[in-house]
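Form 7-S
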Amino acid sequence: MGDGMTQLDDVARKRTLPGRLSAFARDRGEAPALRQKQLGIWEEISWQQYYRRTCGVARMLWQLGVRPSDHVAILSDNRPEWLFADLAVQAIGARSAGIYQTSPAADVRYVLEHCTARVLFCEDQEQVDKLMELSRVAERGGETLLPKLEHIVVFDPRGTRGYEEPRLRPFDAFLEEGLRLFDAEPSFMEERLAALDPSAPSMVVYTSGTTGQPKGALISSANVCEPADSIAKQYGVTDRDMVLSYLPMCHVAEKIYSVFLPLSTGLIVHFGESIDTVQEDLREVSPTLFLGVPRIWEKMHASLMIRMKSSSWLKRTLFFHFVDKGNAIAAREREGKRNALDSIQLALGEALVFRALQERLGLRRCRIPMSGAAPIAQELLGWFHGVGIPIYEGFGMTELAGASHFNRPGDFKLGSVGQPLPVVEQRIAEDGEILLRGVCVFIGYLHNDDATRAMIDDEGWLHTGDIGEIDDKGFLRITGRKKEIIITAGGKNLSPERIENALKTSPYIKEVVAIGDKRSFVSALVQIEYDTVGDWAQRRGMPYTAYPDLAGKAEVLQLVESEIERCNALLGRVEQVRKFRILPKELHQDDGELTATQKVRRRVVSDKYGELIAGMYGGGS
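Output:
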């Protein structure tokens, strides 16, 4: 650990994320901090190993000339090396900047240029090839690609050794050299930690960019340490808890679970073999805490419903009987009206249906299943509550360094995002916008003072851009985005997200774009769920080749129409979708239709499919 450990007292040490890592390494030593699955085997990384590897990376970055306020980018899937790089960068006073691994080459270039990254940590050949593609384009144009980028460190260099790129170097050799330098100067890390300012920017977290280019939110250790401690206290999180890291690590929501909470409580973070094995990894890990974005919960629900429709008569009958019973009992429980007969029926449902269902999803041991990062349909939350998985919805945003509101076991309200953390103040502006203030409010946007001033007012209130209501117990309900509210020709204000989420409760509908601003009625563009609609078609002996063929079939049109009619019952009359068109292709990030977080860019989709929209209102095909 180095002779200099006493240079930093415990209070100062726990004010920064790297300092907290050093404290856990000192106090917990060989206890497991991380587990990584490789070739089917889970391998442990202790707190001591975690810290030492972070020290090696930090020392090597320093050797390469990285200094406080410099930027270092990370382009990779979730893996332990992501954490080593992230915390090493922060430990020397520099700033880490994550890039979504699904980003096309042009988006990678944007982030690297915007933050003027001096070093880039890359996962593998696939990510390096994006830089090679950019390099070829730059050469043809007679320019130098990313002149500020001095080093590219590759976690898994297989396939890149023959590349003619002098900035490339393998991570293993990088770490080995860093550890050699660190061992020769064991006081290095303590000196760097002692020099840190907890309130200085240590991370650049890029927004999803639904309405334009992503903005880089500057976040400090001070923004995240106290809120993480508050979350841990609210939920009783301890070092006995476990999480599976699977959402993109550059998203602030995953940072809460993979970085902030573990460095507050000592819980164990698991890294699966790949993004394709998440469901299998969930079953093996059976985490006690789990965050699912709405799309994850929608997909789980859809897969279960389709699986049950293909099962035996007995299984199908038992499943739908106890799911209906469970939903009714859960509704009574939320009203405080659960009775003894309900308990007996739930016990039967648990034995015959719910236990197997929870184990299949990998959530049998999950005591805090969460939903966040986007709105989720209240009906879907109710369904999961009925099968013994009470999802607690929360609220947060990049500019809040994570989360500000949570529902909690024994204190939650369906349809709300919960109450604010003790470190957060809330109020509603005159125009209905939700305003928040507290230690978690970000520092500002990198290179964009105008956008910062528009986001944070002179009194420190963060203008979220969301419209909402606060009840007498402090529960916050979000009703829509301020800039996306639909105002119909009749003057009615509607939330497109509420309409879209209602339709997405169908297992056959993946994405929806609600239309209706300045129109006489609401319509929708619909993307079908290819897997579930494909299964539906196969069970009916209906041949098809690919998505466009399937989406164009008259039978699929009738299926979607019946699903929309069913889902319309969840909406008020003026909100109900009267016409729709099925999109002829799946929306994709590469086509600019989705953000890196897979959020739909409504404006792009509406413009691109303007003729379909016009056709629904009598002005086109």
